[in-house]
Amino acid sequence: MHEHRFRALILHRRGHALTATLAGWVLGTAWQLQQSALWPAGHYLAVALVAGVLFGLMRWLRRPRRAMPGIALLCLLAAALTAFAVTGWRAQQRLAQQLDPALEGRDVVLVGTIARMPQRGPMGWRFRFDVDEARLDGAVVRLPPQVQLAWYGAVSTADETDAAAPLAADLRAGDRWRLTARLKRPHGNQNPHGFDYELWLWEQGIRATGYVRTSPRDAPPRRLAVGGWSVERWRQSVRDRILDGAGQGDADARRFAGIVAALVTGDQNVIERADWDVFRATGVAHLMSISGLHITMFSWLAVALVGALWRRLGRWAGAARWNPCLWLPAPTAALIGGVALAAGYALFSGWGVPAQRTVLMLATFALLKLSGLRWPWWLTWLLACAVVLAADPWALLQAGFWLSFVAVAILFATDSRADGAAGTGAKAGFFIKLLREQWVVTLALTPLSLILFGQASVVGLLANLLAIPAVTVVITPLALAGMLWAPLWTAAGWALLPLAWVLRALSTWPWASVSMATAPLALGVAAVAGGVLLALRWPWPWRLAGVPLLLPLLLWQPARPPAGQFELLAADVGQGSAVVVRTAGHTLLYDAGPRYSRESDAGHRVLVPLLRAFGERVNMLVLSHRDTDHVGGARAVLAAQPGASLLSSIEDEHELQDTRTAMRCQAGQQWTWDGVEFSVLHPDAADYAMTAKANALSCVLRVRAGERAALLVGDIETAQELRLVARHEDLRADVLLVPHHGSRTSSSGRFIGAVQPRWALVQSGYRNRFGHPVPTVTARYAERGAQIVDSPACGAMRWHSGHPGVVRCHRDEARRYWHHAPTPRIGGR
Fold first, then answer.
1. How confident is the model at residue 428 (pLDDT cuts 50, 70, 90)?
2. Which helix (H) or strand (E) holds 705?
3. Which SS3 state, helix, strand or coil, does residue 370 take?
4. In whole angstroms, how far apart are CA 405 and each of 80, 203, 640?
5. How far is 171 from 628, CA to CA, in rounded Å?
6. Collapsing DSSP states into helix, strand and coil, what is residue 544?
7. What are the CA-CA distances from residue 767 to residues 185, 208, 227, 647 (Å)?
8. What pLDDT does 416 receive?
9. For residue 318, what pLDDT is reported?
10. How far is CA 621 from CA 581, 591, 641, 701, 795, in A?
11. Which DSSP letter does residue 823 get?
12. Beta-bridge mates of residue 486
């Protein structure tokens, strides 16, 4: 009796120790990801040694008859230190592969292989390139093992029949090439609550990006060898066959072919942006790309199919010795087959990071079940988290990780089975189970979606009830079976037609989706806990305790400047201009950033998410002039901000006039918001008839609150600067948006002397082809005591009239060790 109790006590304590170890690994990983800079490798080794000492102490304490109250704490600390040290060491190894700064902007001859299926966009191709050899001026140089390249346009360096120099459209995975590329370190826009492109590249193992040089001065790209069979080459062949099959059809056929290709091969770029907008508004975007949830659903379907087939084979074989059920039970075969097929599907879809962690999670659950271990659900869930983070520590910072694991946790916790399903029939029971599972997942994930994306779908429950069975049971199986018989791809497209119609109708409903300002992390965690409480199968008095936890998130409003003050936020949009001006109750957006391609612009990628994260309702959009680096994102902003008026110098025939009629900006226009004065200083009414040059017609806006002022000048040049100096006795401003991004055509000495800026903000792209800001211009500002801050080094730049001596750089405030740290172009004080 005593021996039995002692063994039970030992097993109980071992369970606590295992729980603490797994939790410690997760916490240690999260701790290391907060580092702004990596330590020397020796420091991580010291941390690992401390962890080893703690593990040794723990083993000593676990001997029989010794005190054991501190074992769980020791396990937690030891595992956390180990995870911290291992993740830091791995980061050091990855950081050592980064591109040498001396090679940035240099033309390097590369020899290597196209590693992944190339993706075609409006501007050309993007692909990953495994570098075997690199030479600069004939000398061998060291490069990261894999780089991401762009090949703009279709380039022919010889007759098209020459297999050694084909068009760029002939790029194929596995082919070996010699080409000239211009490289740079990974660099992305850095904005509050924005997408961390540099983290995405880091997680993918890409430590340099660039583009293929095809000018007459460069050696022509040359294919050295045609690749053999590979999964990536097969994927590309399947994708092209699907798209080519719909090439002669109508617009809907081509759109649906893109969705089918994405479901089969994982190439999300072939789905049109308008369709993505519909999928996001209705909350089904996870079903239209091969995400973690998509692979999980495929695994469930594969388990059912393999199990049914295995049992059928057993019935056919009867009692024969080769009956498969005699040497491997059907549930075991189904589990192994389901995970194996899911892994194969993930491999064929590109073996992306989300797919890898999903397969790891499924394999962990399967191994536990096959081993006969009966762990509590939360311990199984924690083990899967730790395994995924051991393989990919940086997954912890991805939205997909949290959505997947929170969804799995809530399904485990609620044990959402349809009670009484047997009495209502199998089909009705399945529907009730699906409805209940979708309800609890929606209830729990809605607060998380608001935290991660700033928006959530109101119609998502209804849309997913229709889309999940259609996509997982009908469309995806048809799409995959099309690899065996191509007409089934057309059938999958037809099956998409009614679903697409319903989703589009749902997306047009008022309040189909809601957006909210991004709240502090503590409020978000409380709201997720509230959603989980509401979803749990507990008595309703207990579940309603989750409502007070939800309210702070739903009622959160970001702080605004007090009356009589204003704030500027110069967004990091690359080579372009976009400045948000906020007062106590109003918001103005000056310019809307550049257009990056036909399918991408600063409005969709930067400004709309930024404004949504701050809960902004734009009152006025000012477009300084018609150049695309200033108006490229305007259409997206106007679509997202229906209440915004438009003030601009664009001509009456400009395409944006069809979206929102613009009022012409001209000198003398003034208005006051919340004690802050806004004045248009340029152009005059007569200027519109005197010149057609867009830069000369830039709307110049002065924002003033008491003695503090900011001057936003667009792309005016020296002639317009001198006119402003002549017409206005007082042009002084604390902050000046440097004219024309620091071009040599602007920023004359007289103009800088008249403005006397304390801060000169430069919005430009990293290593832009214009060389902005040019050194002579930055020197001119420095000579006159202005502090120069540029967006490549600073990211989004924030200045407040109540604190005029400080410009806050988002790149500094949110710095992590994987972020690029370009040399700032700062002069003056």
1. low
2. strand 700-705
3. helix
4. 20, 19, 31
5. 30
6. coil
7. 10, 14, 34, 31
8. 47
9. 64
10. 10, 7, 9, 12, 22
11. P
12. none
